[in-house]
Amino acid sequence: MSINSIDHDEMTNITNKWDFMDEVETQRPVKHLKSAEARRRIETLREIRESGLTIEEAKELGLLH
Q1: SS3 of 63, please?
Q2: In the structure, what pLDDT confidence band is assigned to residue 3 with cuts at 50, 70 and 90?
Q3: Contact 64, 46 (CB under 8 A)
């Protein structure tokens, strides 16, 4: 597709229809994913602490990356 084949009126109409809420909704799953990863990491660190291992030992055993 060349730049000359773009319908500039159509592009303008699309930008006028853009809704901020569309953008916000697409970002929500990423936040939930990050918080789930953080919870898993915290739980792993708690288990390591309870077991008496040091962080270095946990890394050597492959429990932490």
Answers
A1: coil
A2: low
A3: no
| R_g of the chain computed on alpha carbons | 24
* pTM reported for the whole predicted model: 0.47
b (16+ CB within 10 A) / e for 16-52: eeeeeeeeeeeeeeeeeeeeeeeeeeeeeeeebeeee
Torsion of CA 23, 25, 26, 30, to 10 degrees: 130
d(CA 35, CA 6) in angstroms, rounded, equals 41
In whole angstroms, give the CA distance from residue 40 to residue 22: 29
Q: pLDDT tens across 9-63, in order?
A: 776 776 666 666 656 555 556 677 788 899 999 999 999 999 999 989 998 998 8
